[in-house]
Amino acid sequence: MAKITLDNLAHSYLPNPTKEDDFALKELNHDWVDGEAYALLGSSGCGKSTLLNIISGLLHPSQGRILFNDRDVTHAPTTQRNIAQVFQFPVVYDTMTVRDNLAFPMRNRGADAQYIKDRVQQIAAMIGMEAMLDKKARGLTADAKQKISLGRGMVREDVNALLFDEPLTVIDPHMKWELRTQLKSLHHEFGHTMIYVTHDQTEALTFADKVVVMYDGRVVQMGTPQELFETPQHTFVGYFIGSPGMNVLDAHVSGSTAVIAGHEIALGKGYGTPSGKVEVGVRPEFASLATGDTGLPVTIKRVEDVGRHKIVRADFHGSEINVIAAEGASISPDMNRIVFDPAGINIYNDSWRVAPEGV
């Protein structure tokens, strides 16, 4: 297990980068705590896999250092970093049995034969492949092969870190849930430092102690699922986390009041007079339909009943505002206003969250 330190780390795929936009991975300075489970979350091309490959040693950064337990491993090859990595698509030895595939990382390091046997049995049970241990990997389905890859990554107990690069892409949905549960159980049992790359917020939020949200090559927020939901530090976090994501509307803010397309709303707290691009962000859970003259005037476009609740899609001067209503809520045609709970309002200046005054 290892504390992982990213020190002034950045990477460009260009030979002579000269400006920030030339970097696929913008400058990072973070300490990732020994023994915690992290998820790198973001859309395709945001730098997740680049960062993971730098941590593993498959890629050398353009600048900065990476340290394991304060030891500089920036120039150390993968073999000297003592990590296990599982890739998006299965990497298995087709000519070997499932048992030999799982045993290979331990045999390669001279582990005791009885320990190998016991550990292989334990991991096979975890990935649901006990009955297939003596079958050759050749001819197995893609999801079965990926389970072998996952098992081989998890089989060693002495690694500094376990790295997963979108490992459940080829796994069927039910097995995804089971394997996520097993990975979390493994983490609780052995306390490995785990880093899990995904673009799926459900995977990230159910797996990780801390979620590292990446956007355009930089980390825009690192926090618990609750922190990401309640106080998104960047509008991308608000948009990307949640289903539907946060409503974001252009506004003029002065003190404890915001004006949105000529309509005034109370913010509950003071925010000064931010300049530049100012936006109000409110999650659908903190918006509600109303009648009368308060709130923002809207036209309801449709109501989607998703079982646990209803999602109301409304139009406000050409912008969509989403509202989450209770499953049993009555939605009438005269509900032509949306009001925001001040406790759920966030203010953003040039996409970054503004802290309320006095906080």
TrEMBL record:
From the Swiss-Prot or TrEMBL record, what is one GO molecular function term?
Answer: ABC-type ferric iron transporter activity
**Protein's organism:** Shimia thalassica
The enzyme's first-digit EC class, named in words, is hydrolase
UniProt keywords (A-Z) are: ATP-binding, Cell membrane, Hydrolase, Membrane, Nucleotide-binding, Transport
| Family note | Belongs to the ABC transporter superfamily.
Provide the E.C. number(s) assigned to this enzyme.
3.6.3.20
UniProt protein name: sn-glycerol-3-phosphate import ATP-binding protein UgpC
Gene name on record? Answer: ugpC_2
Q: Name one Pfam family in it.
A: ABC_tran
Give GO cellular component annotations, separated by semicolons: ATP-binding cassette (ABC) transporter complex, substrate-binding subunit-containing
In terms of SMART domains, this protein maps to: AAA (SM00382)
Q: What is the lineage of its organism?
A: Bacteria, Pseudomonadati, Pseudomonadota, Alphaproteobacteria, Rhodobacterales
Q: Where is the ABC transporter domain?
A: 4-241
